[in-house]
């Protein structure tokens, strides 16, 4: 069912009267008896004392308006007048929230790119030759069995940017078109070390814990070796005193220590 146009609504409004009785309207015959001619009656859904009467023409409406004002019901006036114009109800337009898209981060100028979809037969020299201005090609551990991946370092950063923006066509090697992407690996940040004194070892930048432990182990081993050599010297000295008579000057070849033997004491 088509909704009426605004012109049709205005025409019907001009041919309509608002009628109010002194009592509740029970049926439409009470209204028809008050007016003459062809009329259309619109009652509210709930029982009420008022209604709207639509006439065929505006002239019929004006004639009936004069006549109905002269009539009485139980010595009470009948209220009849043109209906009030209802204010137009405008549907609130749901304003769409205008969201400003966040700007895309600019691609950082980099010399290092990630290249995939490399044929298993393709060599590093072939990739260097195809890409041009390529400094090094390092193949990664194969995640996919069919193709290889590599980290490519360019000597010219502008060449790397051109490949990322697809300003240069991606080369085809051994039947596979290379796929070039930015290197998204997390770069390790160098944290400067703290300089402190740990008794025997001075911890400085770049000195790792393993190196400190190795230094301590070396010193402890040197101490043990020194004690071991001293014990050997004492044993050798004891043997020399017991076996020799008189003063001799021997040199131990192993420890390079002069062993001076003392003349055995005369028997009492």
TrEMBL record:
Q: What would you give as a GO molecular function for this chain, any one? A: nucleic acid binding
Q: Which residues form a coiled coil?
A: none
What CDD domains does its record include? RRM_SF
Q: What is this protein called?
A: RRM domain-containing protein
Q: Which organism is it from?
A: Microctonus aethiopoides
């Amino acid at each position: 069912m088509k909704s009426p146009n605004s012109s049709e609504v205005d025409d019907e409004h001009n041919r309509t009267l608002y009628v109010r009785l002194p009592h509740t309207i029970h049926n439409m015959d009470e209204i028809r008896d008050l007016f003459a001619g062809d009329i259309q009656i619109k009652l509210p859904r709930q029982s009420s004392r008022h209604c709207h009467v639509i006439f065929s023409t505006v002239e019929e409406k004006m004639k009936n308006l004069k006549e109905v004002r002269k009539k009485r019901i139980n010595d009470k006036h009948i209220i009849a007048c043109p209906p009030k114009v209802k204010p137009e109800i405008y549907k609130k337009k749901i304003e769409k929230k205008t969201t400003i898209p966040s700007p895309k981060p600019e691609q950082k100028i980099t010399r290092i790119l990630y290249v995939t979809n490399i044929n298993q037969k393709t060599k590093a020299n072939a990739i260097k030759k195809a890409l041009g201005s390529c400094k090094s090609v390092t193949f990664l551990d194969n995640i996919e069995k069919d193709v290889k991946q590599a980290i490519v370092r360019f000597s010219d950063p502008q060449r790397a940017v051109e490949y990322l923006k697809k300003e240069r066509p991606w080369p085809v090697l051994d039947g596979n078109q290379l796929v070039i992407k930015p290197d998204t690996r997390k770069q390790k940040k160098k944290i400067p070390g703290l300089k402190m004194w740990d008794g025997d070892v001075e911890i400085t930048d770049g000195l790792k814990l393993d190196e400190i432990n190795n230094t301590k182990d070396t010193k402890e081993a040197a101490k043990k070796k020194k004690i071991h050599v001293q014990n050997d010297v004492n044993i050798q000295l004891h043997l020399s005193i017991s076996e020799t008579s008189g003063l001799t000057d021997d040199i131990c070849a192993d420890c390079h220590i002069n062993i001076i033997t003392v003349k055995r004491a005369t028997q009492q």
